[in-house]
Write a structure and sequence with these properties.
By secondary structure, the protein is α/β, with parallel strands linked by helices. It is built from 14 helices and seven strands. The chain starts with a strand and ends with a helix.
């Protein structure tokens, strides 16, 4: 008898379900998030389990790795793409787990990518850098806001970086305001130090693939963006077509049509937000330093507004990077933006 498993994972507990080929529930129980306990509960059925679906939004590493170490075939559910059966009037964690097992049995389960365990820590460290940069920007904007509010003039980011404690005291009569700005400056400098450490460790630890060297030839892409694109993409050959990769990068529009009429938009957030950020950043740099890309951007901007034009450039760059990484060839701006 073949069994199909599903685990609806939460922060401190999970619902584990096993169903047979006729959708009959063979095992169903809410368990605490304890790996030995889960493995113990599954062990009597191990020889019959065809695979186990895990649905989680953030805390799945320990469970997926533990199940795979015991040689279970694990499938990570794509939570953004799964739709619940609308005919149900009442749903709970038990019904969610059964629905996952049902989709898996039918072979129509939308799956997420299980990033290789050995490369996951470096990818997450690079994501931590992104978080620190956002916090640094938030503190910088806070200083600009305080300065503009109290003086009526503006201060650039470079001017803020050159501020010292003495300069802050000279600029503001209010000791409370000066203290607030000094606090922001101290946080910015601490974050800069931590960002430098993270960048150094990432460059030391990451196994730079040949594709990285070719990504550096793409207009608008430097070391950090190239590393981000490389580690977030994973194995580029998991994308069957270039359009699949562009969609994963959130560089493709989404709409629903019926009888030629628009019936709304689809899930535009389905994809990788870090790749989306990387290609938009690359697009902003590319239009400043590459004349051919700048002309393409200006033509798009003349027909629509700036955000859409930048996204169009990001889309072009994502498609170009797919071939650059897959074929390990240098970027050709004429082919991409002719």
């Amino acid at each position: 008898m073949k069994l199909y498993g599903a685990i609806d994972l939460h922060s401190n507990n999970n619902v584990t379900v096993l169903m047979d080929e006729k959708d009959k529930v063979v095992y169903q129980k809410r368990l605490t998030n304890d790996l030995p306990l889960i493995l113990e509960q599954l062990s009597p059925y191990a020889s019959s389990i065809e695979g186990i679906v895990v649905e989680s939004t953030y805390n799945w590493y320990w469970l997926v790795d533990g199940l795979m170490d015991k040689e279970y075939r694990v499938h990570l559910a794509n939570t953004a793409a799964i739709q619940q059966y609308e005919g149900l009037k009442y749903t709970d964690d038990d019904s969610d787990a059964r629905w996952l097992a049902h989709l898996f049995r039918l072979g129509v389960l939308p799956e997420g990518y299980i990033y290789p365990k050995e490369e996951r820590a470096v990818r997450d460290l690079l994501r931590k850098r992104s978080q620190l940069v956002r916090q640094k920007t938030a503190n910088l904007l806070s200083i600009q806001n305080l300065y503009c509010r109290n003086t009526g003039s503006s201060m650039s980011a470079n001017q803020i970086k050159q501020l010292t404690s003495e300069k802050v005291d000279a600029l503001f009569r209010s000791s409370e305001l000066a203290l607030a700005i000094k606090a922001n400056l101290n946080v910015i400098r601490t974050l800069e130090s931590e960002i430098t450490i993270v960048e150094r460790v990432v460059k030391e630890r990451i196994k730079v693939k040949p594709a990285y060297r070719y990504l550096l030839t793409v207009s608008g892409i430097g070391q950090i963006l190239a590393l981000t694109i490389m580690v977030e993409s994973g194995d580029i050959r998991r994308f069957a077509k270039v359009g699949n990769f562009a969609s994963y990068c959130r560089c493709v529009g989404s709409e629903k049509l019926s009888n030629g009429k628009r019936k709304g938009t689809g899930n535009t957030k389905n994809g990788n937000k870090y790749l989306s950020w990387a290609f938009v950043e690359a697009a902003n740099f590319a239009i400043r330093f590459e004349p051919l890309i700048a002309r393409h951007y200006q033509r798009k901007k003349a027909k629509t507004h700036r955000v859409v034009a930048i996204k169009a450039v990001a889309h072009k760059l994502s498609r170009a990077c797919y071939y650059v990484m897959r074929d390990e060839v240098p970027f050709d701006v004429n082919r991409a933006f002719a």
